[in-house]
Design goal:
The protein is mainly α. The protein is built from 20 helices and no strands. The chain has helices at 7-10, 19-29, 33-40, 44-53, 61-72, 76-89, 95-99, 104-120, 123-134, 144-163, 173-186, 190-206, 210-220, 228-244, 248-264, 268-284, 288-300, 307-322, 328-345, 348-362. This is Helix-turn-helix domain-containing protein.
Length: 365
């Protein structure tokens, strides 16, 4: 990213920076919000504010100059990605979408709002924002921009359904992801297709199809359609599926390298989550000392304290505590609190997992 751009690409910088263009630049550079903020030398909350405001948010002139410099110094491939994303984000020149009354700027802004709602587990509002477009839009293969927004909307709806435990069935995350897969396949966007394929494997793992999930995760770790970040996540999730199968020592051989990779990539959130997965693998192997050390790292370095991540992390902690008779009572109390939070926010898959852990250990308390 430190290679200066040539004259042609410097001229390709955005004429006007808003929250939307800043988000596209971050995606082109393949950086997390935190890493992008560090790259620019601004606070992470500043970047988050830009992106949540979308095209209605305009950074200060001095910050726009920073964004100009960041784009001009980006690697050629990143600049090409930005040009492509910027082109895709522009209003379609064809008259049909406009004649049909589609406001693509408003749609993209609603998708940004939906992502913020997902982070706060505000599922009802997220569904409202998505439904207003999914019910209104008529898929049209000649309308590339509209189809991209339609595919993104389906993916986000799948994430809402997944987080609420609606995994399989006629109106489920699985069916929604499959619709998104067909859209991105038609659009010939291999990376989006591979990301949805990865999402479908996650559903299989959540549904208990652990052997097939581990195999499919393994194949995706070498899939060049995915970004390096997504391939490392797939490696971590190989370990997760193996740990759930009771193959805990084998699982750690996938999880530990993923931890190192996340550290190298400066992805603190995934690094913390990977320690949570490692803790559960150690617990499954009967090494409660190592499990306690790993969960302590995850708790100390937690990045995203949303209700969902808090429940996941504290459920893992409680699972380790209830595995030791000396701390079982504290663990069961923690699980009770996790169950209350899960019920409050509609995290029904997490609630099922918590109930399973409680049933296993309450008889031994």
């Amino acid at each position: 990213m430190g290679v200066p751009g040539d004259a042609h690409h410097v001229a390709a910088t955005a004429h006007h920076w808003s929250g939307r263009e800043a988000r596209l630049l971050r995606h082109a550079l393949r950086l997390s919000v935190r890493s992008f903020a560090g790259y620019l030398g601004v606070a992470a909350r500043t970047v988050a504010k830009w992106e949540s405001g979308g095209s209605a948010t305009v950074p200060r002139p001095d910050t726009q100059a920073i964004l100009d410099t960041a784009l001009s110094r980006a690697e050629p491939e990143a600049r090409r990605r930005f040009d492509l994303l910027l082109h895709q984000a522009e209003p379609a020149p064809a008259p049909e979408p406009a004649a049909s009354g589609y406001d693509y700027d408003a749609w993209a802004d609603d998708l940004d709002r939906t992502m913020a709602c997902l982070g706060r587990q505000e599922f009802a509002l997220a569904r409202t924002l998505l439904d207003r477009w999914l019910r209104r839009y008529e898929p049209n293969s000649n309308d590339t921009q509209g189809m991209h927004l339609y595919g993104r909307s389906l993916r986000l709806l799948g994430e809402v359904q997944q987080d609420q435990g609606e995994l399989h069935g006629p109106l489920s995350a699985q069916q929604t992801y499959r619709k998104a897969l067909r859209v991105f396949t038609e659009l010939d966007t291999p990376r989006r297709v591979a990301q949805i394929e990865l999402k479908l494997v996650v559903l299989d793992e959540m549904a208990g199809r652990l052997e097939s999930a581990a195999r499919r995760y393994e194949s995706l770790t070498e899939d060049e359609r995915l970004s390096e970040h997504d391939r490392i996540r797939a490696r971590l999730w190989v370990g997760t599926a193996l740990s759930k199968r009771g193959l805990n020592e084998t699982a750690t051989r996938h999880i530990v390298p993923a931890i190192r990779n996340f550290e190298t990539m400066e992805e603190p959130e995934d690094w913390s989550i990977a320690h949570q997965k490692l803790a559960l693998a150690h617990r499954g192997a009967g090494d409660l000392t190592a499990a306690a050390q790993a969960i302590d790292v995850a708790l100390t370095h937690r990045v995203n304290d949303t209700p969902l991540q808090k429940v996941r992390l504290e459920t893992a902690h409680a699972h380790i505590l209830v595995s030791d008779r000396a701390t079982r009572h504290n663990g069961l109390s923690m699980l009770e609190n996790c169950a209350r939070v899960s019920a409050e926010f509609g995290l029904f898959h997490q609630l099922q997992s918590i109930d399973g852990i409680r049933r296993t250990f309450e008889r031994q308390a």
